[in-house]
Design a protein that fits this description.
A hairpin with a 5-residue loop joins β5 and β6. This protein has one domain: Serine Threonine Protein Phosphatase 5, Tetratricopeptide repeat (Alpha Horseshoe), CATH 1.25.40.390. 48% of the residues lie in helices and 4% in strands. The protein is mostly helical. The termini are far apart. It has 19 helices and eight strands.
Length: 495
């Protein structure tokens, strides 16, 4: 049921074709590579090329993404042994030279160029038309995902709609985000209309029409297009295809990744079949010395976040985090001082033999969840509360579904402002360390206030760690490494 082996094997061919397409002008007569002109010939080539896009997307979420989406927020404190890069990100004192920005930018554009190559070259292949349409729309979905992350992080970014095959094609200026969003929307609309609702066998895990629609709802929400956000999320709710799992922690069970009713789209990591890109976020977050393999204890939960979980909230202690001493499902009593606070429990699957006995660097099978149904419910609730039409029940019902599943009481009769506050609190508790927090703070316009509050708290927890400060802007800096090689790229204000 897992697609990693397929992507790992066939993705290399697509990657080889992609590398040749970018570098062939440097070597006019390559003799030891597979040129694109000789590669895009058969339906198998087309499948391999799309698998190569998936393979590249996997690297976007492997490490640098969550340095920015989670470590650089008020949800995570960095432990004493975290490297200087982690401390700069956690303290929000990084600049344009920091590697996570360059990693995210580079991986996104490698994804985009691979997707563009598919969209440019696959239409000419003589093959089954249904399969070709599916593959093209998978590429559109993945291109839209890459561009959406770019514009949310950096604002204006170069808009490349076709495969780049020369150095001159890289010397481009930033396109206003308002002109990038239409491509994102059109890609996702096409994918939502044409992709299958589900897959079977080795294809399980590919982008579906539901994934395209869920991402489209998030795009509309980010643009504050409340009407379309509510309508699009509402379509997913009324479709009946997805449902909340009864047990919140089961979302992160390795045995049922991708195939559970709440999963919409995930980055699929397999520690056995694909050891080069295991889910290292698991190892970073487990307390140092935890029995069963590698555990680095580099991050922990701030007291202000811990206090937001009621005792009855299943997402609190032994859900999102664990406190020392912790008794695990094997009966082991584990204590720690590193990190110096509640450690993450979210990605430790205590029902999985690998997680509990053989954890190792780049050899973890915990997936990175990009979209799940709870997010759809909360997007719908937010959009309706802000003015979108209620097409799939009330905003209150959608919010309460998430609250009740977590074990806390439903809300009722709230004003628009009070509901907004409750919704934002629920998103924070539901999605800790799932790549959501920075984007939420940025789009709500409260990133500065959140970092000021965090740095005030840090003065008590870790005196001297950093001064009290806010943020330069609600965007991240354009990577200096990219500006060094492309003088047409301007920098975001404040950086």
């Amino acid at each position: 049921m897992r697609r990693t082996k397929l992507l790992s094997v066939l993705g290399g061919l697509a990657g080889l074709a992609f590398a040749t397409s970018c570098d062939s002008f440097l070597d006019p007569s390559p003799s030891d590579v597979l040129a694109p002109e000789n590669f895009y010939k058969t339906s198998s080539d087309a499948v391999a090329a799309v698998n190569g896009v998936y393979e590249q997307v996997k690297w976007s979420y492997w490490l640098g993404f969550w340095y920015m989406s989670d470590i650089a927020t008020d949800d995570i404190l960095v432990g004493p042994r975290f490297g200087s890069d982690g401390h700069r990100m956690g303290d929000y004192i990084f600049d344009a030279t920091e590697w996570p920005m360059g990693d995210m930018w580079g991986n996104a554009y490698r994804t985009i160029n691979r997707a563009n190559a598919v969209l440019d070259r696959v239409p000419a292949i003589t093959m089954d038309t249904t399969l070709r349409a599916r593959l093209l729309n998978e590429a559109r979905f993945l291109r839209a995902l890459a561009y959406f992350n770019l514009v949310r992080y950096f604002g204006d970014v170069p808009l490349l709609e076709h495969e780049v095959t020369s150095l001159s094609g890289l010397a481009v200026s930033r396109t206003p985000a308002a002109q990038v969003y239409p491509l994102i929307v059109s890609d996702l609309q096409a994918a939502a209309a044409a992709l299958p609702a589900s897959y079977s066998g080795a294809d399980v895990g590919r982008a579906t029409s539901g994934a395209a629609r869920a991402l489209l709802a998030k795009v509309y929400l980010t643009q504050q297009d409340w009407a379309n956000a509510a309508q699009t999320a509402g379509q997913l709710i009324t479709s009946g295809r997805y449902a909340l799992l009864a047990n919140w922690k089961d979302i992160f069970k390795i045995a049922t990744e991708i195939i559970n009713s709440e999963s919409i789209f995930e980055m699929n990591y397999d520690g056995t079949l694909d050891p080069g890109a295991g889910s290292v976020h698991t190892l970073f977050s487990i307390p140092s010395g935890y029995p069963g393999g590698d555990a680095y204890g580099l991050m922990y939960i701030p007291p202000s976040l811990q206090n937001l979980f009621a005792v009855a909230d299943k997402r609190g202690n032994n859900g999102t985090f664990m406190t020392s001493p912790h008794t695990d499902q094997l009966g082991r009593v584990v204590t720690w001082t590193d990190p110096p606070g509640p450690a993450f429990n979210k990605y430790l699957d205590e029902t999985d033999a690998e997680n509990m006995n053989t954890r190792a660097w780049v050899k973890q099978s915990n997936n990175w969840i990009v979209l799940r149904y709870a997010d759809v419910l909360l997007m719908y609730a937010e959009a309706v509360n802000e003015g979108g039409a209620a097409t799939a029940g009330s905003a209150e019902a959608a919010l309460n579904a998430v609250r009740v599943r977590a074990g806390i009481a439903p809300v009722s009769g709230l004003s628009q402002t009070a509901f907004r506050d409750s919704l934002r609190l629920e998103r924070r508790r539901e999605f800790v360390f799932e790549g959501q927090r920075w984007f939420d703070l940025s789009r709500w316009g409260v990133l500065d206030a959140a970092i000021r509050a965090k740095t005030i708290e840090l003065q008590t927890i870790a005196p001297g760690e950093t001064t009290v400060h806010g943020v330069p802007s609600n965007l991240l800096p354009v990577p200096q490494s990219e500006r060094d090689i492309n003088p047409n790229l301007t920098q975001n204000p404040g950086w």
